[in-house]
Amino acid sequence: MAETAVIRAAGCVLWRRSRRDGRPEIALVHRPRYDDWSHPKGKLKRGEEPLRGAVREVLEETGVACVPGAALPTVRYVAKGRPKEVRYWVAEAAGAVDAGAGGAFVPNDEVDRLVWLPPDEARARLTHDHDRALVDAFLHTLSPGG
Fold it and tell me: What pLDDT does 43 receive?
């Protein structure tokens, strides 16, 4: 039997400064197919560089352009019996595409909700433990010396 190919994907911990108090807020997306909350991510296209794919997925899933920053830990798990590897980066929101301050998120079959939450609330809302660990890694990049 042939070796099972690894599913390659990429995503970002997308963040912005709160307009209220300047503290970080993290974007989470809800995927109705899985009824879960996660960071924006998706499968890479054939030959696509992971960072380029991560930025593309953020834009497709949230409507928000972003500026990628530090690499975060790669997450590995099994999905539908196949190994999956997701590369992540920190990415600061650079603005919504063709929209004002309200954003350009459009619900669809893949992602039906987008929320911006403080890190503690984001950690609590995330469905999977490996996504929670990425919040901590993101916060480390913001801390002095991080």
Answer: 97
**Does residue 23 fall inside a structural domain?**
yes
Any domain includes 105 = yes
- State the CATH number of the domain containing residue 21: 3.90.79.10
- The answer to whether position 1 is within a domain reads no
Q: For the whole model, what pTM was predicted? A: 0.90
- Candidates 20, 132, 10, 120; CA nearest to 59 is 10
User: HSE (CB half, 13 Å, CA atoms) of 59?
Assistant: 15
- Mean pLDDT value across the chain: 91
What pLDDT was estimated at residue 70? 97
Domain of 103 in residue numbering reads as 7-142
3-state helix, strand, coil in the chain (%, to 5): 25, 40, 35
The string of pLDDT tens digits covering residues 30-43 is: 999 999 999 999 99
User: What total number of domains does the chain contain?
Assistant: 1
Decide if 85 contacts 8 (C-beta within 8 A). yes
In this predicted structure, the answer to whether residue 1 has a pLDDT above a threshold of 80 is no
Assess contact for 16 and 115: CB atoms under 8 A: no
